[in-house]
Amino acid sequence: MEEAFERAYCFELADKLEAERDLTDEELASVLLCDYPGFDEYLAEKARAVREKYYGKSVYLRGLVEISNICKNNCYYCGIRRDNANAERYRLSEEQILDCCDAGYDLGFRTFVLQGGEDPYYTDELIVSIVSAIKDKHPDCAVTLSLGEFEKESYQKFFDAGADRYLLRHETADKEHYEMLHPAEMSFDHRMQCLRDLKDIGYQVGCGMMVGSPYQTAAHLVKDLRFLKEFKPEMVGIGPFIPHHDTQFADCEAGTVDMTIRLLSIIRLLLPDVLLPATTALGTIDPRGREKGILAGANVVMPNLSPSDVRGKYLLYDNKICTGDEAAECIRCMAMRISSVGYETVVARGDHVSFSME
Ligand code: SAM
Ligand code: FES
Questions:
Q1: Is-above-0.90 flag for pTM?
Q2: Ligand 1 mean position to 146 CA, how many Å?
Q3: Which CATH architecture has domain 2-346?
Q4: Nearest to 114 by CA among 101, 103, 105, 95
Q5: Which ligand is nearest to the CA of 168?
Q6: Each residue of 74-118: pLDDT tens digit?
């Protein structure tokens, strides 16, 4: 009897989340911890209905260019952290980055995401030059940067040069947890300040966290969800934590596909019009992880456009998928995966659309 009551309570919370686009922290914790069969399908069905109401069956493509795996930071979880002497380092020149974007354009990409470690080689001036060159050549495209933490003046320069969006995962909304994942030289407050600066400037901002990162509890995830609801980012990037053998978290367990999928559905219901990628990390822990992500409310995928000779070097975690394929092959494979679950990849900038009038 007791169990039937608890089960009904969980499903009612899913209904409430759908109707009110929010829950109390306690209720969110119950949704995260619910382990009744059929619950994830129930939640995913609601998340799918919401994403289809706003975005139909379209899945937006972002062409990811991993510009450098050189990083001055030492995040404990990250395979390209400064102190990993075994990482084979590379960086792309401005010309190589532009070549990737040109090739991506011909393949149908209308958003380029430049991601990399915090590599001082890329000065403000160089980033400005790269962004301007991409926008000059492809004025119909959006440029997203994901290059870590800068001061507001630098973010402003990149924006003025034409950058449209910025991805900077908050990693965790709990300061103590942040300090367990990063060395003392890195600051939770600064990361959060960066996110506020980016929003102030006018970027479409993406934040997010790893699922199942070391020491993470349900209470931390509730804090993350509360932060997302209040900060209202245009994009949310989440993916499972996956250990990298050359880090101090080498023996930690990876995040699970089930919890990642559940969080994707919850985030879709909390922020109905958000841009939500099904990430490579999700595809790494489960061969059909990205398809499952799409079916749980995700509406973005980010095929890799990096030159094939450096792909195998941008290794944040072990067993990363898609490190061998050519860009054209990647996009074909992605389109097939997406259509196999009844959705379609589209050639469009895929900007965030605000439906707040409803
Ligand atoms: N340097 C930029 C920054 O700090 O935002 C962008 C690159 S960073 C490698 C991109 C994201 O990779 C991080 O925000 C983190 O969430 C994710 N990441 C790093 N190590 C990971 C791991 N072991 N498993 C899963 N995701 C990881
Ligand atoms: Fe800098 Fe991972 S530690 S990108």
A1: yes
A2: 10
A3: Alpha-Beta Barrel (3.20)
A4: 101
A5: 1
A6: 999 999 999 999 999 999 999 999 999 999 999 999 999 999 999
